[in-house]
Design brief:
- The structure holds two protein chains of two kinds.
- Chain A is of the alpha+beta class.
- Chain A is 30% helix and 35% strand.
- Chain A folds into two domains: 135 residues, 2-Layer Sandwich (60s Ribosomal Protein L30, Chain: A), CATH 3.30.1330; 72 residues, ACT domain (Alpha-Beta Plaits, 2-Layer Sandwich).
- Chain A has a six-stranded mixed β-sheet.
- Chain B is mainly alpha-helical.
- Chain B contains 13 helices and one strand, in the order αααααβαααααααα.
- Classes of the chains: A alpha+beta, B mainly alpha.
- Chains A and B meet through helix 1, strand 1, helix 2 and helix 3 of A and helix 2, helix 3, helix 5, strand 1 and helix 7 of B.
């Protein structure tokens, strides 16, 4: 590890037992839930590698559910996440999957929201509570939740990225990283913007209001 | 933080404690001010204290049901006249087990440096605070010395069992705690380095072999040993005993041993205690059920 910081060694505050299999799993669930961006009704959770093999003893299942329900890694209700999901009427199914050449601690979420909206998310827990999202709705992406993250889906056409970044910049937000992926020329595209500052809801709403935008998701920075 | 020697030299030339140098560097690197860093550390310490308290007083069972209640058992025995460790060291061991049991039972802890080693720092710091009568400010500052040792280890070696075995987790925690204990007890910056080195040397080669891959057996009890060794190392350093091999070189040795460790002994549950007949039987019971 290069350039470690004080609170990498003393922290995070988390519910045990494992920073990768528990705390990281909560974060993945939390990010997946935010990407769905609506009240969750149904989740099919597919576990890969070590998540599938040793997840049970580490509470990985509970951690993933807890995250989907909006809990953070230090929430003591993670233990009872399964009962909570049931009481909220959220249907959860677990299966094992082979996702191929990905990190051993990986998971695929197939989520359905209250309005029938669907999202598919793949992510990995990298250790020490750090996570990465590698796929959203079939698009290859790469973001960690360590920045404020805005995701926009739209039909691929010239000028769209400029319109989005103009909105972000006019709010005085500094873009740290940006990645564009698309299904093919002139087809659908997805842009991920990671920013140093909070992107205010009004800005997110403006981007949602841009012509041709299909979907905008926003994830607050996680510490 | 590339070397502890660098920290030592800076502390000596500034005539300040190690913790002061660590906090100054952290302010510069993160842009946070002193108050913000102290507040964050204070929150960490209060969660550590809660986890220990909870572990000592509650009927806590680990997630698998394999372990639980040992912290309460130990502290109770320590009250008897037949305690071999004495009341103080008994508390060190019991407190370390307490936080580690809470971790295993999906309770709230502070990773220090990891979840598996979360009992060592709280056990040592709470007990040293009791012995010395340190103020809240002093104890919060001493955690920055602990972090300084941990940061050098993270950069020169690793603090992950999957990379470096248990020496990287409990060994690191023990070295961090030993250094911080020395500072709290009024030792010099050099003595924090000797304490850290003495503690870490006694974990070299320790493998990560969790039964069933769970952070329970042998992890929880190793927290007690990590804390006791930290106290012993701190006492030795305070008495003027020196580590013949300097801390940075001990850390490099740990890194080199970690690289030589086969994968089966690095948190894969494919070797060590995990593959004993009993270990395998326990694993089968957990994952079949």
């Amino acid at each position: 590890m290069k350039n470690s910081r004080v609170f990498d060694l003393l922290g995070p505050i988390m519910v045990g037992p494992s920073s990768s299999h528990t705390a990281g799993a909560v974060r993945l669930g939390l990010m997946a839930g935010k990407i769905l961006a609506t009240e969750i009704r149904k989740a099919r959770i597919l576990l890969h590698g070590s998540f599938a093999q040793t997840g049970k003893g580490h509470g990985t299942h509970l951690a993933l559910i807890a995250g989907l329900l909006g809990m953070y890694p230090d929430d003591e209700r993670i233990k009872i996440a399964s009962q909570l999901a049931e009481s909220y009427g959220v249907i959860i199914n677990f299966e094992n999957i082979d996702l191929g050449q990905v990190h051993p601690n990986s998971v695929k979420f197939e989520l359905t929201g209250a309005n029938g909206q669907k999202s598919t998310i793949i992510g990995s827990s990298l250790g020490g509570g750090k996570v990465i999202i590698t796929e959203v709705d079939g698009f290859r992406v790469k973001f960690t939740g360590e920045y404020s993250t805005l995701i926009a889906v739209y039909p691929d056409y010239p000028g769209m990225i400029a319109e989005i970044t103009t909105q972000v910049a006019s709010a005085g937000v500094n873009i740290a990283q940006m990645k564009v992926s698309r299904e093919g020329r002139g087809r659908k595209a997805l842009t991920v913007i990671e920013a140093d500052e909070v992107i205010k809801d009004i800005v997110v709403q403006h981007i949602k209001g841009l012509p041709k935008i299909e979907k905008v998701m926003y994830l607050e920075q996680m510490n | 933080m590339r070397s502890y020697l660098e920290l030592l030299e800076q502390a000596n030339s500034n005539k300040s404690k190690i913790s002061e140098i660590v906090i100054l560097r952290e302010m510069e690197a993160t842009g946070l001010d002193r108050e913000q860093l102290l507040a964050k550390m204070k929150l960490n310490y209060s969660v550590m204290q809660q986890s220990v308290e909870q572990g000592l007083t509650s009927e806590w069972r680990s997630f698998s049901g394999m372990v639980g209640g040992d912290a309460a058992r130990l502290i109770e025995y320590g009250k008897s006249e037949r305690t071999l460790l004495g009341h103080t060291m008994n508390k060190v061991a019991a407190r370390a087990i307490a936080a580690a049991e809470i971790n295993a039972g999906m309770g709230r802890i502070v990773a220090a440096p990891t979840g598996g080693a979360c009992g060592v720092l709280p056990a040592v710091m709470i007990t040293v605070q009791e012995i010395i009568g340190s103020s809240e400010e002093e104890i919060i500052m001493a955690f920055f010395t602990a972090a300084g040792i941990g940061m050098v280890i993270a950069e020169r070696a690793s603090v992950s069992g999957a990379e470096g075995g248990c020496q990287a987790e409990i060994g690191t925690a023990s070295a961090m705690a030993a250094g911080a204990a020395v500072e709290l007890a009024g030792g010099t910056p050099e003595q924090t380095a000797h304490a850290g080195a003495i503690a870490l040397k006694n974990f070299l080669g320790m493998v990560c072999d969790p039964v069933g891959g769970l952070v329970e057996v042998p992890c929880i009890k190793r927290n007690a040993m990590g804390a006791i060794k930290a106290m012993t190392a701190a006492e030795m350093a305070l008495a003027g005993i020196k580590s013949a091999i300097p801390l940075d070189e001990v850390i490099d040795t740990m890194a080199s041993i970690g690289r030589q460790m086969p994968c089966s002994l690095r948190e894969t549950a494919q070797g060590g205690l995990a593959v004993t007949p009993t270990g395998k039987r326990i694993e089968e019971n957990i994952f079949r059920g």
